[in-house]
Specification:
The protein is α+β, with helices and mostly antiparallel strands. The protein folds into four domains: about 120 residues, Roll (ibrinogen binding protein from staphylococcus aureus fold); about 110 residues, no CATH class; about 90 residues, no CATH class; about 200 residues, no CATH class. It has 15 helices and 26 strands. It has a six-stranded antiparallel sheet with strand order 15-16-18-17-19-22. A five-stranded antiparallel sheet has the order 5-6-7-8-9, covered by helices on one side. Helix 2 packs across helix 5, helix 7 runs antiparallel to helix 9 and helix 8 runs parallel beside helix 9.
């Protein structure tokens, strides 16, 4: 990796695929996965996928040169040091669940994090100083007899004494105990008096992995696992020259799994040819540019003031002659020949790319997955508003915004109705159709819905007041000299207050697939399943996705409908919410 620089970065799920370019145009691919590990890959190919996080990584490490790689205390953290414009930066891959990828500058200041962490014990956010999590277990490279003694005293079994107190994966815990002829399930006291031996076996295991590795795959109780040393406690099934080769063999498939559907054979062949063509074109371009650069140096050598100056140019060009040229003209000739050779190789690369392009199979038209037909339901007129049906069987409809408030009051308010409004700024108008005969239960239901769909939700209030009035108390125009904002109306006379309405909403799905929301009791009476939400600080879109998933699970799969995310979003108040209850309603 000496002299290699970052040429590009791609995505493979959460893994970052870094393409390093070495002197001479050789590519080295590094897989950096917070779920599976970090290794140099011979199998990964150029990928077109790029996540937003990967795009940011590119900007941080554009043409950065490789300096060093380390694994502090042999823990589950990998640190890649790169030089970016004479300033060192670190790419940090944390492999402890759930995993993270970070960028920090020379002083440890975090410039980018895949996932920010804000907990009582740790803070990983942009602008804060990165610190490696305090080790909770001893390092196997420096473990002492005293450490082993504490482990024995603190755990019941030998397996737990090593596994919980020393930073070793389970496979190496079994290997350490195997070399000591002790089973994992034996009492920790089986190690008493052997503390020095236990510590020595662990230190020797690390030294063996560093100085005399024997990379292999072995069958363990957990399945096939990669070992850096040949285990005595497991059956070796495959050997390799490097750990990276085994990571490619075992872990690359896991990283790829679930990222995308496997293409057919023609598609694989086409992709492989496209990668080969791309690399040939890059080689052609690189060699052509190199030939031009060397040709210019040949011109300079021919016009140099002395043979010494010409020989210095020869050295700078990177051309290695068979003998030492005796004149400036001879130096220029040697450099010209090298330029011609590179130009010829560039032409050959271009011709090879042309031949492969003629072989390139046409991309097959992908067949769409068969999907069940969803019959479109004709909506009722009131579904453009917020709506629900009370337990008394009356329709309650509310405005979504200033415009729908205006339409609702001007077009749909009848003499037999009543009008509700929250006792605060930023509230919809709700109309209870036929509300002149409303019951006490219906008053509570509509008042709660009005309060819940008001600004009380977005501000996170637990309760809010509302009131109701008769239609003739609603004025559609302002007094002379005054102004009414769009969606606002003048309320005259006595207001019938309904105090301390809980800010809470239920979202339910009817048997026919229609989504609606309102007070829990009203929604429960007409739903096959529903969830109850209260205000919470999260994105409304995230809340909608959770509600949709819950409703689909509560209602079950249907032949003629599916829970629509768009319908769920339309049924929610403005702002995020937290599901506090959910219920599947048995049919009558």
């Amino acid at each position: 990796m000496a002299g290699a620089y970052v040429n590009n970065i791609y995505s493979l799920g959460r893994a970052q695929i870094i393409r390093f370019r070495k002197p001479g145009g050789v590519d080295v691919w590094l897989v950096a996965s917070p779920e599976h590990g970090v290794w140099v890959s011979d199998r990964v190919s150029e990928r077109a996928e790029t996540s937003p996080f990967t795009s940011k990584l590119r900007s941080h490490f554009e043409r950065a040169r490789f300096v060093d790689a380390s694994q502090p205390d042999l823990d589950r953290i990998f640190v890649l040091t790169l030089m970016q414009r004479d300033s060192p930066k670190r790419l940090i891959v944390e492999m402890m669940p759930p995993g993270n990828v970070l960028v920090a500058d020379e002083g440890g200041l975090i410039e980018l994090a895949e996932a920010e962490v804000r907990t009582a014990g740790r803070r990983v956010v942009k602008g804060s100083t990165y610190s490696i999590p305090a080790p909770k277990r001893s390092s196997p490279a420096t473990v002492t007899a005293a450490d082993v003694s504490k482990a024995i005293a603190g755990e019941k079994t030998a397996g737990r004494a090593i596994g919980r107190r020393v930073a070793l994966p389970g496979k190496y815990v079994r290997e350490v105990l195997g070399r000591l002829s002790v089973r994992e399930d034996e009492p920790a006291s089986a190690l008493l008096g052997r503390e020095e031996d236990v510590a020595r076996v662990m230190v020797d295991l690390v030294d063996e992995a560093r100085s005399n590795p024997s990379p292999c795959l072995a069958e363990t109780p957990a399945g096939a696992e990669i070992f850096a040393v040949r285990p005595t406690s497991a059956e070796v099934t495959e050997r390799a020259e490097s750990l990276s080769a085994l990571c490619d063999r075992l872990l690359l498939g896991r990283a790829v799994q679930g990222v995308s559907a496997p293409p057919d054979k023609d598609e694989v062949a086409r992709k492989e040819l496209e990668v080969s063509i791309s690399r040939l074109r890059e080689t052609q371009k690189s060699l052509t540019e190199e030939a031009e650069r060397i040709r210019e140096m040949a011109d300079q050598a021919g016009a140099a003031a002395s043979i010494e100056s010409a020989l210095e140019l020869l050295k700078s060009s990177g051309v290695e002659p068979r003998g030492v040229p005796r004149s400036r003209a001879a130096v220029a000739s040697v450099i010209y020949d090298a330029a011609k050779a590179r130009k010829l190789t560039a032409q050959q690369a271009g011709q090879a790319a042309d031949r492969l392009e003629r072989k390139l199979p046409k991309a097959k038209e992908r067949k769409a997955r068969p999907t069940k037909e969803i019959r479109k339901r004709k909506g009722e007129w009131y579904e453009k508003f917020r709506w629900f049906v009370t337990t008394g069987g009356r329709l309650a409809i509310g405005g979504r915004d200033a415009q729908s408030n205006t339409i609702l009051v001007r077009r749909h308010l009848d003499a037999n109705d009543v009008v509700y409004h929250a006792d605060l700024f930023g509230s919809p108008f709700f109309i209870l159709k036929g509300g002149k005969e409303q019951t006490e239960e219906e008053v509570k239901e509509v008042a709660q819905a009005t309060a819940s769909f008001s600004s009380a939700w977005k501000t996170g209030l637990g309760v809010a007041d509302a009131y109701w009035v008769k239609p003739d108390q609603i004025g559609t125009s302002a007094p002379s000299g005054e102004y009414l904002a769009k969606g606002s109306f003048l309320v005259k006379g006595k207001r019938n207050h309904v105090s301390r309405n809980i800010v809470e909403i239920a979202v339910g799905v009817e048997a026919g697939g229609r989504i609606f929301s309102g007070p829990e009791k009203a929604v429960a009476s007409r739903s096959v399943g529903y969830v109850v939400l209260r205000p919470h600080r999260e994105k409304g879109s995230d809340t909608a996705k959770k509600v949709r998933k819950d409703l689909q699970g509560l209602a079950g799969e249907r032949d003629d409908w599916a829970v629509s995310l768009e319908d769920v979003m339309r049924s929610l108040p403005a702002g995020g919410g937290k599901v506090v209850r959910k219920k599947s309603v048995a049919p009558d």
